[in-house]
């Protein structure tokens, strides 16, 4: 029997979110392959029910929120040292998965200089204009990115002196998120209208927009609403308050029965500002829910059609969102029709289709000749 390929995952973000869920979905597609997985994480709860070997990442309070300057580099150097120390316990590493973005995963790039593994980078959201980030992108063996992040990637690469189009960089490739068969969302109910919202409390996720829209609806028409939220930790970004005292709203902090709560609902509301992908939207579609999304040019706005497989409202318009909610709850037949149409589209986003190339990149031991050639061309 051939030796198991060893994949290392760095997870330095202290709370759960879409990119982390996507990473776990990718790893489920490797379970029938000849691999083992080790995770160094700042969020051990997320990995509790996986087969991965997990170790907690340590970070002093003074460096937890460092995002610039010497403290930022000190933070990632400390992560790199822990990765080298982790290597002593887990053995040779064949491939590392940088699952968030170079600005977050920098420690993996530093440790790569010592440990020599292949590095596969996934990009779930826009990256900052940074020479360091650009250089990391050039030194990854594979970069898989959401199409919506392409402009920011080009900007970061230009800061590092690379002015080629992404299509000319052979180690860059787009991907879409997908859902595994074994965790496919449960079909929602169509008996009575119930609203469902699920995201973190980061301000840009728009919980405040939903709450204000619900307050705009007359008390006689109030809709039962489930708000499932993740409370961010170790972040400098602004956040919303939860729970709040709002009529007919049930609050659930990081619930273990998220799928059950979703299946008891049937109207999904997205209030995020230009969501790079929107994994929770895809999950709602897979459950057959009527999805209400903003008209903002983001991914699902470009993929779905108002009145055919979703309802759309003008982004940030609280009155328009309230009207969409009322429209959805007033016609269960239309709600079901929109939900069923959305569920058909969701079938195109099965994990075995969406993550095939990423899994292949993770499971190979061979050094990427094309990315090495590209780097020589850039440096030359």
TrEMBL record:
Quote the CDD domains the UniProt record gives: GT4_PimA-like
Domain Glycosyl transferase family, chain residue ranges per copy: 191-342
- Top-level taxon of the source organism: Bacteria
Question: Which InterPro entries has this protein been placed in?
Answer: Glyco_trans_1, Glycosyltransferase_grp1
For this protein, the record's Gene3D superfamilies field holds:
Glycogen Phosphorylase B
- This one is known as Glycosyltransferase family 4 protein
Look up and give the organism this protein is from. Enterovibrio gelatinilyticus
């Amino acid at each position: 029997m051939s030796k198991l390929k060893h994949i290392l995952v760095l997870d330095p973000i202290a709370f759960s979110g879409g990119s982390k869920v996507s990473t776990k979905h990718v790893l489920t597609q490797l379970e029938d392959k000849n691999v083992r997985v080790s995770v160094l994480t700042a969020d051990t709860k997320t990995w509790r029910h996986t087969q991965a070997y997990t170790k907690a990442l340590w970070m002093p309070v003074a460096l937890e929120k460092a995002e610039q300057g010497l403290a930022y580099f000190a933070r990632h150097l400390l992560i790199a040292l822990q990765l080298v120390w982790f290597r002593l316990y887990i053995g040779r590493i064949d491939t590392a998965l940088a699952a968030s973005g170079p600005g977050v995963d920098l420690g993996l790039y530093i440790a790569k200089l010592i440990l020599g593994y292949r590095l596969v980078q996934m990009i779930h959201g826009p990256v900052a204009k940074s020479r360091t980030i650009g250089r990391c992108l050039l030194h990854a063996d594979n970069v898989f990115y959401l199409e919506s992040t392409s402009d920011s990637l080009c900007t970061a690469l230009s800061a590092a002196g690379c002015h080629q189009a992404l299509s000319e960089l052979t180690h860059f490739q787009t991907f879409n998120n997908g859902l595994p068969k074994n965790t496919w969302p449960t079909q929602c109910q169509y008996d009575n209208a119930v609203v469902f919202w699920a995201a973190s409390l980061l301000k840009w996720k728009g919980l405040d927009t939903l709450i204000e829209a619900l307050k705009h609806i007359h008390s006689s028409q109030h809709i039962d609403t489930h708000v499932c939220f993740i409370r961010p930790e170790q972040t400098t970004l602004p956040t919303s308050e939860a729970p709040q005292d709002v009529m007919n709203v049930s609050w659930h902090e990081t619930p273990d029965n998220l799928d059950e709560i979703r299946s008891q609902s049937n109207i999904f509301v997205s209030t995020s500002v230009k969501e790079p992908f929107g994994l929770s939207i895809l999950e709602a579609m897979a459950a057959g829910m009527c999805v209400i999304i903003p008209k903002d040019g983001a991914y699902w706005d470009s993929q779905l059609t108002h009145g055919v497989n979703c309802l759309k409202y003008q982004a940030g318009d609280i009155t328009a969102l309230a009207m969409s909610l009322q429209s959805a709850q007033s016609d269960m037949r239309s709600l079901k029709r929109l939900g069923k149409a959305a569920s058909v589209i969701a079938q195109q986003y099965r994990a075995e289709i969406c993550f095939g190339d990423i899994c292949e990149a993770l499971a190979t031991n061979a050094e990427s000749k094309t990315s090495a050639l590209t780097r020589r061309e850039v440096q030359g």
